[in-house]
Specification:
GO terms for molecular function: protein phosphatase 2A binding. It is a single chain. By secondary structure, this protein is mainly alpha-helical. The chain has a domain of 209 residues: Serine Threonine Protein Phosphatase 5, Tetratricopeptide repeat (Alpha Horseshoe), CATH 1.25.40. The chain is 56% helix and 0% strand. It has 12 helices and no strands. The longest helix is centred in the middle third of the chain and has 34 residues. The protein starts with 6 loop residues before the first helix and ends in a 12-residue tail after the last helix. 14% of the residues are buried.
Length: 349
């Protein structure tokens, strides 16, 4: 193992990280510029991976103590690649499934690498073992009970919050800011890896849920080249309602002997029906539905008000869930200390 990588590897990795951070703050994920920057970042990470393999920075025959502090950030490479791959713009469910498959492979490479250095520690080691037993049905909280899932989400949220707070504390430490104390820097890098393990397992859970949804999504029908009307047709747009009506009726309009098989309308010209719309006997709407409802509301014909609906707690809002949990516990304690009828001083049943 080389304890000091060449400048080319450091510059490649730093350039890839700069691109990744820029993409995290991008707003137009469907723009050509976003796709170009995403491909550039993935290309830089790929080149950095080739350099790491050529230098043999990591080996299954080594322990964590054999890895230099300056090499530890490179263990995160596949985790960053997995995150970027998931951001790839796509147009169809099949394309998205392919993207998720590539992202899963990158997450698995990352977890396998850090696990070989015993960096997947409790409680994540047991979660990773469950993933390896059944990757496609894996869930971080393996329970069908709603209360257990809620408690699991709260625990995951608190673990993530604790890791973020630890990283911020290490970054603000004067020993890290002033002289870059190696012991502190190494602890910071190892905490980043632990946080990446936490995020990777959460991402694999979310990935499986998305795959389940995409598996049920309807696939687009391939258009028929022989039956599709030409956009150059003069009445292509005008005759669309008639075309859709006829497409719902099976069979030809006339038999071989010329006998009508379906009801039809004789028109003097191809766009006669469209011109009928502008005749004097054709009534056009005088207001939109929104305008009509607004007028009814102004005249007092629509009842308003009522009881405010009960707010539904978002399962992903951990702070709101905590508040609801504590509120319920306080109510349970009140009921325990104040049984029904305890305040009935007039002996009324």
């Amino acid at each position: 193992m080389s304890s000091e990588e060449p400048q080319s590897l450091r510059s490649l990795y730093e350039a890839a990280e700069e691109k990744r951070h820029a993409l995290d703050n991008a707003f137009e994920a469907t723009s050509p510029a976003y796709r170009s920057d995403l491909e550039a970042a993935l290309s830089l990470y790929s080149s950095a991976r080739d350099q790491i393999s050529a230098l043999a920075l990591f080996s299954s025959n080594e322990g964590l103590e054999d890895v230099s502090t300056s090499d530890l950030p490179y263990l995160l490479l596949d985790a960053h690649v997995a995150e970027l791959v998931q951001k790839t713009p796509n147009q169809s469910p099949d394309q998205r499934l392919e993207v998720l498959s590539k992202s899963r492979a990158a997450y698995e490479r990352f977890l396998a690498t850090v696990d070989s250095y015993a960096l997947v520690q409790n409680p994540y080691d047991r979660v990773l073992e469950r993933y390896r037993d059944d990757p496609e049905r894996f869930a971080v909280v393996a329970s069908n009970d709603a209360a257990a899932r809620r408690d699991g989400k709260i625990a995951n949220y608190r673990a993530e919050k604790a890791l973020k707070e630890k990283l911020e504390t290490l970054r603000r430490n004067p020993r890290y800011l002033d002289d870059g104390d190696e012991e502190l820097v190494r602890e910071l890098y190892l905490t980043q890896i632990t946080f990446a393990v936490h995020s990777a397992l959460q991402a694999l859970d979310s990935l499986n849920r998305e795959v389940e949804i995409l598996a049920q999504a309807p696939r687009p029908l391939a258009p028929s080249a022989t039956n599709a009307p030409s956009p150059e047709d003069h009445s292509y747009r005008l005759d669309q309602p008639l075309r859709r009506l006829h497409s719902l009726q099976a069979g030809p309009l006339l038999s071989k002997q010329g006998k009508p098989l379906q009801p039809f309308t004789l028109l003097g010209s191809r766009d006669q029906m469209s011109r009928d719309v502008f005749r004097s006997g054709h009534n056009l709407p005088t207001m939109s539905i929104d305008e009509y409802l607004e007028e009814e509301r102004r005249q007092g014909n629509i009842l308003q008000g009522g009881v405010e609906p009960k707010k539904v707690v978002d399962e992903d809002d951990m702070e709101a869930i905590d508040r609801e949990t504590y509120k319920q516990r306080e109510w349970d304690e009140f009921v325990d200390h104040n049984p029904k009828g305890a305040g009935n001083t007039l002996n009324r049943g």
